[in-house]
Amino acid sequence: xxxxxxxxxxxxxxxxxxxxxxxxxxxxxxxxxxxxxxxxxxxxxxxxxxxxxxxxxxxxxxxxxxxxxxxxxxxxxxxxxxxxxxxxxxxxxxxxxxxxxxxxxxxxxxxxxxxxxxxxxxxxxxxxxxxxxxxxxxxxxxxxxxxxxxxxxxxxxxxxxxxxxxxxxxxxxxxxxxxxxxxxxxxxxxxxxxxxxxxxxxxxxxxxxxxxxxxxxxxxxxxxxxxxxxxxxxxxxxxxxxxxxxxxxxxxxxxxxxxxxxxxxxxxxxxxxxxxxxxxxxxxxxxxxxxxxxxxxxxxxxxxxxxxxxxxxxxxxxxxxxxxxxxxxxxxxxxxxxxxxxxxxxxxxxxxxxxxxx
Length: 358
Ligand SMILES: *Cc1c(COP(=O)(O)O)cnc(C)c1O
Prior knowledge:
This protein is α/β, with parallel strands linked by helices. About 35% of the residues lie in helices and about 15% in strands. It is built from 12 helices and 12 strands.
């Protein structure tokens, strides 16, 4: 008995790896350390009785789209939600990428951008950031010359934490629109930084800004993300979305979350304060770090610490603290990425880190 071989272009691919091990302090996947508001859980529980479980969900997710649109002050026809922003990215690539087309990324960045390009058969163009993880004009022009259909930017960038300036993004938006390239700006961490490219989305613009409920909204467990883009882009992407892809419960979960905006804002504030506190403490240790506009910090032990990134990762894990080990990723030699947790978790991380480095 036989199965057909899988697609040749897939057999070369590595899956997505982030170890899910059982530890006391989990600071490895940039989740929110705080559970969603009790009120949200209560409202959602009550809603279980009202959902018509024998019926398919609202295919257009009208209420959810309206609520998200209101939150961002755009028209409801400029929003499209999906099962995590990863599904939004995949749908964008199915629409504008695919076999015979190219997508461009600037490394180091979120691994899923190149992974999803590969899954959708889209050829990848890689531009390299400079040693400060900035994208130089020359690099951009080099990438554009290779005629991508889609260009990915991630701001704040995962895993570096670096936020692109408005001037920089505006100049790329303009360049891409001139040539006819769709610019995807992944703003999974946008709320933790000081500005959002959603301000640049208007009717006719050639950008898609993707957002997620996974990080800021403490809802990684529900898998909900969305994009804000011109109506023309939203309509095109609807072509590849499977019918009824967003279940009824998820649609309500998203709408109910948007009733707790001030609570979300205060959580973001707390995490930003904590990020700055952790960063100040790292300054006192033999650690190199990068300025972060997100809910995590990329860092590595300096030579004087006399420990490699991997050894440091292991030592933290032995103390039941899990951070992301990026040390073997290209251009990130020796680097680890720590998610900002609760004040207690951060204290514990810092204490153990200091003890290990002593
Ligand atoms: C976490 C993350 C996402 C979120 O993906 P979801 O599918 O919405 O959970 C998207 N982009 C980046 C850069 C991320 O780090």
